[in-house]
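Worked Example 4.2. Consider the chain below.
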Amino acid sequence: MPTFTRSSPVEAAALAECAARLDPSRLARGVALAPYTTFRIGGPADLFYRAHDADDLARAVLAARATGVPVFVLGLGANILVGDRGFRGLVVKNEARGVTWHDDGHVRAESGAVVADLIREAVGRGWSGLEHYVGIPSTVGGAVWQNLHFLSPAPARERTMLIEEIVEAVELLTAEDERRTVDRTYMQFGYDFSVLHVRPDIALAVTFRLAPGDPAILHRILQENLAWRGGKHPWLEYHPSIGSIFKKIEGVGAGRLIDQVGLKGHRLGGAQISHIHANIFVNLGGATAADVLALIRLAQEKVLAETGYRIETEIGLVGDFAGALPAD
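Applying the procedure from the previous section yields the following structure tokens:
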């Protein structure tokens, strides 16, 4: 797994000290995380805090760091699988959604702002750059963490559009507990990658640089991309999922390999490899993280045995997976 936020039991005294530093009106204990993920899977968090702006988000993370409590910042809960035992520590639900629009095409959005909302506003204002990512569930923080991407507009779709192309600056709480604004070079963007994968920096806000766009063209791109995704991806409202499970294999495709070995539609417990796209697993109801991990292992083993390809996961594992993962 490229990202794994492991959590283990935390001393009660540390949790109590961390909780004492947070606003009690937005703090809860033992909150199930499943409803806050697009997979609808995940056990309870010891502490669950709703951060209402970038400053509050920074304070919450600093409170956890100061008390030695593991912390995870949760956006829309896409691209992650939360353990059935939940998260031992503090989960900060990022609801920092302030947005400032400028007449020159720059827009500063706090990291909890929802990309879909930004797209709607940008297109309405006649600004281009965000429309390519319509239909992808993500906050702004998640977008820079993963370097959000999609194929370029139809009909050519000849290249991948990366959100880094419109990122001008990112405001961070660094691993050293400093507030710092960095440029895209610092972010080390790559495919499905940013420096946030390897440094525990926290994105607080992002400034995007947009360009004037023809509203008719922008709306056409929205419609085409939504139609394309709708035909290839299961609908989250009916079949919860977290997007692609395995990394892209250039020229081959992990989904094609899984389909080739006869696993499309295969089910273990409440988890199923989608009939629509074999690189997407869905929750048919009551799926557990253990079900998903077992299905991942099955796909990896069968693809390797029958095709020789090793398919690697691109999702993040978050929380307590005691007993569900191979020993280190």
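The two ends are 13 Å apart (CA to CA). The chain has a mean pLDDT of 94. Compare this with Example 4.1 before moving on.
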